TrEMBL record:
It comes from Microbacterium foliorum. It comes from the Bacteria. Keywords: Phosphoprotein. The keyword Phosphoprotein applies. Residues 146-195 form the FHA domain. InterPro entries: Cell_Proc_Reg/RNA_Proc, FHA_dom, FhaA_N, FhaA_N_sf, SMAD_FHA_dom_sf. This is FHA domain-containing protein. Residues 221-242 are annotated as: Disordered.
Amino acid sequence: MGLLDSFEKGLERAVNSAFAKTFRSGIQPVEIASALRREADTKAAVVSRDRIIAPNNFVVRLSTDDAERMQGLGGALTDELHALLTKHAKAQGYSFSGPLSISLEGDDKIATGTINVSSGTVEGRVNWQAVIDVDGRRHSLTRARTVIGRGTDADITISDAGSSRKHVEVLWDGERAMMRDLGSTNGTKVDGQKVREAALPSDTTITIGRTDLVFRIVPVATPSRPPRPRDDDATRAFGAIS
């Protein structure tokens, strides 16, 4: 199996097969992956015998219809494109001057079924951001304490009759995260196990009622590291599970 075949099959395995049925016309997710790989290969530059620099900032422009369909996949597509391009760069011996960034944009000048990829090199530092994906929407955790539940006063509101108004809280100190059930009626599961509180590694699934929320820690490019959030409750909670 060639490298391109392996690259594309990895994307097909990672993106749910139901997506393929959704995109019977127009751009397929695997075509974007291949276009990114070609752009990285074309723009990679040898700077020394032991170092090849590839672009780390990619902008994928699609027709407005194609872009809308791709964005309907939520964070799953961009996360997988990021992982697969990182894997390809490692296999080819490429290095990046800063954190890898991939964005998808709609452009009414692009014809349906066409992909336009531009790239460049942006230097910077990696900052780690905690996010929660719910039903295709991504929520960044900008506070030390984020409350999730059915109530409109929750920081993240979910439409699920099986959830309490304030069901769980997620504590994030800039490096570590944990979940704590707030005395909900139906309880909370973490990766299928019913718990009252638990540490949250990246890619952990929190189940509230019939709703799955996926906690992730993702890299973002920032010129400098912002101050870490602080909260007395978060400090006490992390001290309890250290």
